[in-house]
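re: ur question from yesterday

yeah so i grabbed the chain u mentioned. its 220 aa long if i counted rite. heres the sequnce exactly as i have it in my notes:
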Amino acid sequence: MIKSSNNKFISLLQTNKQFIIFILLMSVFRSAVADWYTVPTGSMQPTIQEGDRVVVNKMAYDLRLPFTEVTLASLDIPKRGEIVVFESQAAEMRLIKRVIGLPGDVVAMKNEIIQVNGKSLYYKSSTKDSAIETIGDIRHHINIDNTASDRLSNFSPVTVPQGHYLVLGDNRRHSADSRVYGFIPHNELRGKATAIAFSVDYENYYIPRSERFFKDIYGI
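ran it thru and got these structure tokens back, copy pasting raw so excuse formatting
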């Protein structure tokens, strides 16, 4: 009886060998190379919206052993303005934010205006509640909800520790980021967000938003 069951199992494996190999390779790819993540909140609006599925390059900064958090090689560090996905121990959840400060940077915010190493970022008004912010070579929209509390609009100069980053959400008054949870250690990074694969509208029966399919998140 046992021998018969083993024969059937082996036969099943042989019959579906190509499919099983495909699943294994796809699992390795999603674990160590690239994946997409669902965005559950609006902290990165207007760049990323609730219901977006964001493509993440998991090899942008580190090469990890598949299915583990073991780093095999450090490949790069984030640049200012890049959007990163990380597993926040402080927040006890996966978050997606924009990198503002690199190790050694002195960062401050005064009345929504960010200063990096004593120099204010460039801002251009877009609408009543939004602006275009330029950090490094990246220009992007930010939301500023003037009806919300401005308690997150200011912080005194802080120095980013080695091996850490200061991150902010683009929806500035509605984002729990480094202003709430502190600096992000490099080992929490899981990759660089690169584009929106597809998007669904949570408030409209999950209807796909075709205009957001394959949308670049670094262009405006």
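noticed a couple things. The longest helix spans residues 17-32. also The helical segments are 2-15, 17-32, 178-181.
anyway ttyl
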